[in-house]
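hey m, so remember when u said the tokens were messed up on ur end? i reran from scratch. heres the input so u can diff it against urs
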Amino acid sequence: MINKNEPLPDHTNKDYYECYAKVVLEELYPKEFLNLEITDKPDLETKNGEYGIEVTNARDKDQMNAENLYSRISYNKVRNVTRALEKIKKCGCKLEGGILSGKVGTDSFDLILSAFNKKLKKLNRKGYRYFKRNCLFIFSDIYADDKMITKAVKDMQQSQINTGKNFYKVFVWLPKCFCCLNLYTGSYEIY
């Protein structure tokens, strides 16, 4: 049983990010993404076969691990707090006075582009169901400006020039906004 007042357990039968993406897309685009189904290869799909959406995370793995450990410490879910603190430090973060200081990094689209290219390869492999419009939903924790987003659209378009199967749109969830990158038109919109 999941306690709504505590962090999600390490193992659940549904992926948190896939469920979150489903809610966001259904809320922002109710005409296209009404009642998305959580599936596999891709993660989300429309019942009519129009859209298939792969969901991925382009966040720093060490930062995510440190946040997970911090959450587990906060809710007394770790057996050995000292060992958990050591692991947080190994991740490049630190916990002082109950506050987690994150890993020092830079805001760039590198992790997003890397995740895009990885999923583009997956889309073009055998055994992956292809839809009329394939999309990608990426979670990230960077702060992006218009110049970065414009360049990312061009880079993604360039990456899929010589591939058989392409992504129609890429949705990027950022801390301050939500971006819809339309790779078909080369445009984007921000919410």
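this time it looks ok to me. The radius of gyration is 18 Å. if urs says something different then somethings off w ur setup not the seq
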